[in-house]
Amino acid sequence: xxxxxxxxxxxxxxxxxxxxxxxxxxxxxxxxxxxxxxxxxxxxxxxxxxxxxxxxxxxxxxxxxxxxxxxxxxxxxxxxxxxxxxxxxxxxxxxxxxxxxxxxxxxxxxxxxxxxxxxxxxxxxxxxxxxxxxxxxxxxxxxxxxxxxxxxxxxx
Length: 156
What we know:
There is one protein chain. This protein is about 50% helix and about 20% strand. By secondary structure, the protein is an alpha/beta fold. The chain has one domain: Lumazine/riboflavin synthase (Rossmann fold). Helix 1 packs parallel to helix 4 and helix 2 (about 45-60) packs parallel to helix 3 (about 85-100).
């Protein structure tokens, strides 16, 4: 059996912060014995497009050398001076709908800060949320595995 594999999809709008978040996620995934790959986009508004492309490429993975990931972890940060809160919620809703429609394990730390000066503390403030998001993703991946294998799956 192959080790579980996760795609970490991240917005790099604030690279210092998301790099720290990425390192926290990598540490948590590594502790669970999960391999990962990294996909970055410049801005959070690009996340839904990237996720859709990833889901579509994974859907066609049986015809290519692409390994279908077992789950997706999304990391991104927005703030009031950079993106309207309504647009942030639209990005979040779209991401959730894409993952739900595809039936893929998905977890996210997609944060909206109201004040730009809060960004200085954002790197450390969300560490526990990232760890919780990884654990949530692992739980969803385990549930999916259980549902696709006996005794839950129909015997062939």
